[in-house]
Hints:
Blueprint: E1 6-7, H1 20-25, H2 27-31, H3 36-53, H4 64-78, E2 87-92, H5 98-111, H6 118-135, E3 146-152, E4 162-167, E5 177-181, H7 187-193, E6 198-204, E7 208-215, E8 218-226, H8 240-266, E9 272-279, H9 283-289, H10 295-298, E10 301-306, H11 311-321, H12 330-347, E11 352-354, H13 356-364, E12 368-374, H14 379-391, E13 395-399, H15 404-411, E14 415-419
Parallel strand pairs: 6-9, 9-10, 12-13
Antiparallel strand pairs: 1-5, 2-3, 2-5, 3-4, 6-7, 7-8, 11-14, 12-14
Helix pairs in contact: 5-6
Amino acid sequence: MCPCSWKGVSLNRLSLFYQWDAILEFFPFFFSVVSLTSFLSNLPLLFQTFKKNVPALGVMSLNEQQRHKLKKFIKELSQYKGRHTELVSVYVPQGYELVKIIQHLQQEAGTATNIKDAATRKNVIDALEKMVQHLRLFKRTPENGLAAFAGNVAAQQGKQDYKVWSIEPPTPLKTRIYRCDKQFVLELLLEMLDEKEAYGLVVMDRRDAHLALLKGKSIIVLAKTHSEVPGKFKAGGQSAARFSRLREESAKDHYKKVGDYMKAQFLGKEGLKGILVGGPGPTKYEFVDGDFITNEVKKKIIAIKDLSYTEEFGLQELVDRSEDVLANEQVMAEKKLMTRFFDTLAKHEGMVGYGEQQVLELLKRGAVDILLLSDALADEKIEMFEGEAEKVGTKIESISTETREGVQLRDMGKIAALLRYEIRDY
C-alpha cells in the first residue's frame, strides 16, 4: 500500500479570485460618483452591473464544449486500473503554488522507497518522477487550478508504459489532493459534470399537478399529485350552491397540497435560478395569486405560461413556451440549433446533410459548418467524426436525447450537418 496520501482542506476564499476581473469592471463607475446624493441615485444601476458580471459563489455551469472535453478526459482515464496502489492523482487548487506541490511530491518519492513490493515501489517512484517533470513545464498554476495523473498503464504485467495527463478544470478547484490508488481519483472532475443550476417547473390544472427540475437539457420529474375536485356536473340530490362550495373547497385543498410540494422540493435548493409555472385556463393564476405558496418560494417564480397540456407533455410545453426566460440556457440553444436544421432541411435541402455516409463525405469535402452528433452515437463513431471535423475547422455540437428535437436526430441516423455552402450533387 502506498504510504503517501494527503488531502488538503477546502480553500473557499480562493473561489473569489476568478471573479476579480468582473468586480473591477464596476470600479471606474464607483469612483466616478462625486457625491453621496449621486451615489444613492445611481445605486440601482451599480447593483445591476455587479449582479450581471459576478456569478453566484459556488454555482458555475459548463458550456457544451467544456462538458464534452471533460467527459472525454474522464472516460480516457477511467479505463486504466493499477495492479496495486500505484496510479498517482494530484489536484492543485486555484491559486496554490506549484513549487510547493513539486516539493511535496519529491518528499513522497523518498517515502515511497519504503514500499516492500519491488514492482509497486518502482511504479510509484517512476510515476512521481514523471509527474514532477510534467509539473515543471508550467510557469504557474493555471487560473482554475490543475488536475494531473501519472502511472504505469501497461496492459501486461512486467511491462512499462508510463503516461502523464493533466487538465485545467472548467471550474475552480478548491481542494488539494495527492493519492496513490489502483485507479485514478476522478470524483472531483465527475462532480463538475453535474449541473449546478436548475429551474423549477410546475404544471397544473384543477385535477393534476406535476413538479420537475430543468437541469441542463433534462427534465427530472420530482412529484405528481392528483386532486379530489369533483367534475363540473353535480351529483343528484345536491344543491348547485353546495356543489359549487364543495368544488371550491376541494380546489383549495389541491392548491395547498401543490404549495406544500413546492416548499418541500424548491425551498433552499442550491442553484435554483427560478420557478416556471404553467397550465391550461385560469387555475395557475388562482394558485399563484392565492395564499398557497410560502413567500420564499413565491419570490422564485419568474414566469407563468398558458399551456394546452398538463403532466409530462405539459412540462415539455412549458419549457418550449419559456424561450424568453431560458434564452441563454443549454436546452434552448439545442432546440434552436435543431429547429434551424429542420427548417433548412424543409426549405433548402442542399444546405444540410444527414446520415453517417453522407455527412462523412461532406466533412471530407470541407463543406460542413456545424456537425451535429447525437449522444446516442457510439463512442468510436463520435471520435472518428470529431477527428475529421477538426481537420477542416468544423464546429461540433453534441445533441442530447433529452429534447424532442434530439430524439428526432437520433431516429434519423444520429448524425447531421449544417453546411457552409449549398451542395447539389448528392
